[in-house]
Structures are given as C-alpha cells and as structure tokens.
Specification:
- With 179 residues, the chain is an all-beta fold.
- It is built from no helices and 14 strands.
- Strands 5-7-8-4-11-12 form a 6-stranded antiparallel β-sheet, with no helix packed on it.
- It is elongated.
Length: 179
C-alpha cells in the first residue's frame, strides 16, 4: 500500500471587505499550495463564531479568473467550502477566492482577536491538508458595552458627562473613541 500524500499551504491569508463586528462582509482568502489542486477538490476555511444562515451555491470570483466556482456556507460548523473549478492549479501558484457579502456570512459580534482560531484544509488528492491554523488576518474590534451618565449641579444644570465602555480587543495606550 502506498503512503498517503501530505500537502501544505504557504502564505495562507484571510481578509474582509467590511471590518465591523456583526456585519455582512466579503470574505477573501489567498493561498499557495505546495501541491497541485485539481477540479472538484475543495478548500475548507473554518470561521468560528461567524454568523449567517447556511447557504449553498454561492458564486465566487477568483484570481486568476476561473480557479474557483461555487462555495457553500454551513452555519452549524462555521465552515466555508470553496470548490476548485480549474483543471489544475500548479504547485505554489498564488490563488485568491472572494466570497461576496450576499452569501449572508457575518463577522462575529465580538470582533476578531489576534488568536482567533481560523482553520484551513483541503481534500486534494496530491496532498491532503488537515485543518491547519490560519494566522494572517485583520483584527476587528467591537464595542461590547457602553454607558453614558450626566451629572447635575446644585441648580439642576448639567455640569459633567462621564462615558464608560469596554471593547474587544481591549483598549491600549493610544486608542481613541470619537463622539
């Protein structure tokens, strides 16, 4: 029995057109596979905590054109599956897939932290890639709670306003909120 080939992705990245927690967004991922990809094979990107109802037959665009075809979003396991349409994607060829916001997929309400557990995998015959962390993506902040209070002076006139909020990721020196 011959050994099962193992594949890998180089320079896998993920990006979003809208970087606002809880909003619909285009999803773009770019990869370079260390093995060939063939028509009918699937790249799966797991997007934990993303929202939106399951949907099949999502039209994608790709660079180079025609590399990817339809995508499916499964809300239960937060997985986006994109099918290869090109006859062959050569080893280390950079390919990009864009899934439009019309797919209904939403960024997490709590935003994206640096440690967000994205995974990417493929069922490629030339080399299966088991779920592998995808670490190149933008951080998306979220306002988790906020409170505004005004204080009155002895003549019942407003004299001060205090604002309090908490965000994700946590604020650090130099962060600012605009009113």
């Amino acid at each position: 029995q011959s050994p099962v080939p193992i594949g890998a992705f180089q320079h896998a990245s993920l990006d979003f057109s809208t970087k606002m927690a809880g909003h619909l967004t285009d999803i773009t991922f770019a990869v370079e596979a260390e093995m060939e990809l063939q028509s009918g094979e699937v790249i799966t990107v797991v997007l934990p905590e993303f929202g939106g109802a399951s949907k099949t037959c999502i039209m994608t665009t790709s660079e180079p054109p025609g590399v990817f075809g339809l995508a499916n979003w499964t809300a239960d396991d937060h997985s986006l599956r994109v099918m290869v349409m090109a006859d062959v994607v050569t080893t280390l060829q950079r390919v990009v897939a864009m899934v439009p916001s019309e797919s209904g997929i939403q960024l997490p309400e709590t935003g994206l932290q640096r440690e967000h557990p994205f995974l990417i995998s493929t069922n490629a015959v030339a080399g299966t890639v088991l779920p592998t962390p995808l670490t190149e993506f933008p951080i998306v902040g979220a306002l988790l709670s906020s409170c505004a209070k005004y204080h009155l002076d002895d003549d019942s006139r407003p004299c001060s306003l205090s604002l309090q909020d908490s965000g994700s990721p946590a604020y650090s020196l130099g962060n600012a909120n605009k009113l």
